[in-house]
Specification:
serine-type peptidase activity; mainly alpha; AB_hydrolase_fold; Peptidase_S9_cat; Peptidase S9 prolyl oligopeptidase catalytic domain-containing protein
């Protein structure tokens, strides 16, 4: 990133980063604070980046987010997922257990849990999730999903190359077995897949310097929270407008502009 800044002939770098991109922005700002201009980090990772502990927090996110879908389903009885949030949750566990014991159409319990997790980031995805869940529960043909975009395999390989080199991952099978048992209890909705052993356990090389959390930047830093769902909220125009107005307010009142 600093080489890009230099090639562009800029004295300072301005940057917008989403999700994993927040980690890049945090590390760059920590390493080169004097070369950092306007840095916007949206949907931040934890202080350790996308490491084992960060990955296991997916389960916590599922526990906190699923109740929103469990309220949506009873309000839309055509899907037949349950008449109360409690019934929806119970039916979810029952279907996941059934698929664990006997996969259907190539989908097992872990794939079902991951599929639900990936579709509850935004309320707009709830209808498609409900249709998928209903079809799977009734043994019907599943709705066609979008095809994998070109370069998916390369993207996944690059993902592993980055996260396995950036952070330290458990290499002991016994450690992963212990973590899996713990996460089954902590996060019953998502399960323990993110605690399981990863390709990073056998990665041939590790980074010479592991990730360090972003240091405090004092009055130059501003935290803006938005009390709604979504990941990468600045990508949505309405939220972009909201954040812009918020940052302008902070500039006027905190910096005297």
């Amino acid at each position: 990133m600093d080489q890009i800044r230099a090639v562009l002939g800029e004295e300072k770098l301005s940057y917008t980063g989403y999700s994993y991109g927040t980690d890049l922005g945090a590390v760059y700002t920590t390493m080169f604070p004097q070369r950092s201009d306007r840095i916007l980090l949206d949907s931040n990772l934890g202080p350790g980046g996308l490491d084992s502990d960060g990955g296991r927090l997916f389960g916590l996110g599922m526990e906190e987010r699923f109740p929103d879908f469990a309220k949506f389903a009873p309000a839309n009885p055509k899907y037949g997922l349950g008449s109360t949030p409690e019934e929806v949750t119970s039916n979810y566990h029952a279907l996941a257990a059934r698929l664990d014991a006997s996969p259907e159409g190539g989908i097992d319990g872990a794939m079902f849990r991951n599929g639900v997790f990936g579709r509850i980031y935004a309320d707009a995805n709830f209808p498609a999730l409900a249709e998928l869940w209903h079809a799977l529960d009734k043994g019907q043909k599943l709705p066609d999903g979008p095809p994998d975009p070109p370069g998916t395999e390369n993207s996944l390989a690059s993902h592993l190359y980055v996260i396995c080199g950036d952070t330290s991952w458990p290499k002991s099978t016994a450690t992963c077995q212990r973590d899996v048992a713990a996460d089954h209890e902590r996060f019953p909705l998502y399960g323990a897949s993110t605690a399981n052993i990863r390709p990073c356990a056998d990665w041939p090389k590790q980074a010479r310097e592991f990730h360090q959390a972003l240091r405090a930047q004092g009055v130059e830093s501003q935290l803006v929270t938005y009390p709604e769902e979504g990941h990468g909220v600045r990508a949505f125009p309405a939220l972009t407008d909201f954040l812009t107005r918020s940052l302008q307010w902070f500039d006027r009142h905190l910096r005297g502009l």
